[in-house]
Amino acid sequence: xxxxxxxxxxxxxxxxxxxxxxxxxxxxxxxxxxxxxxxxxxxxxxxxxxxxxxxxxxxxxxxxxxxxxxxxxxxxxxxxxxxxxxxxxxxxxxxxxxxxxxxxxxxxxxxxxxxxxxxxxxxxxxxxxxxxxxxxxxxxxxxxxxxxxxxxxxxxx
Length: 157
Known about the structure:
Elements: H1 2-28, H2 32-51, H3 59-65, H4 69-82, H5 86-103, H6 105-119, H7 125-136
Helix pairs in contact: 1-6, 2-5, 2-7, 3-5, 4-5, 5-6
């Protein structure tokens, strides 16, 4: 049974690396103001998840308590995509990749790279939230948008 588990684990790691690399590559292709909107949405979703009792900014420790949490994020993203809520799906993908990076040391550097790209959007978060308000009529809670998850600062401390 251990052989199959190891094969599945290697397959999952390879798939997660590929997805995180592609996501980060997409982030590299957009300008700061576009990233500001993505960060604003991700921050708003973070606050909603925290209201529900999830410890989003401490993904390494929270994953050890709730190892099923990335699966919850993944299924929610799929639901958002089915509902054509693509901006929310993108915002939640940040947290899925954050938790995957926290869960697997082999992905940690890629997670740091993702947050380094997201950091380019920090100066534009308020602008992105204002645009979202005009476009969608929804106020985003962007308090603490410049916060990095523990263990995923762009440069190791």
